[in-house]
Specification:
Blueprint (H helix, E strand, L loop, with lengths): L1 H13 L20 H18 L12 H9 L2 H10 L1 E2 L5 E3 L10 H20 L1
Antiparallel strand pairs: 1-2
Helix pairs in contact: 2-5, 4-5
Length: 127
Amino acid sequence: MRNLSGSVLCLLLAGCGAQPGVEKKAPDMPRFADEVLSKGRGVWMGTCRNCHLLGISGAPAVSDWAAWQPRLKKGKPALYQSALNGIKGVDGQYRMPPRGGNRQLKDDQVRQAVDYMAASVVALHSQ
């Protein structure tokens, strides 16, 4: 089981690998005093940042206000559903796997990570 878990993790991270010829600077991720956002930061840093920090493999980067504006306008319930259930492309393949590929995350943890990412997008846009 350990080897299988490691293999799955490698496959997920391989999809989030660096893009040839593209150099991006990672933003300093904000910290918030709010307990939910603080917990969400821990989940986000452990799972979501793999793709969302720099916008790897088509994932919207937390610093990309233009990409996040329409998503944020849909509201938190829509963001929660996308994170919990994943997002499939027109080909039926996941563009983002459910729970960011981390099946061990509880629903509340996923929601906390979404709350953190939404707050971070706004905070980074305000800088």
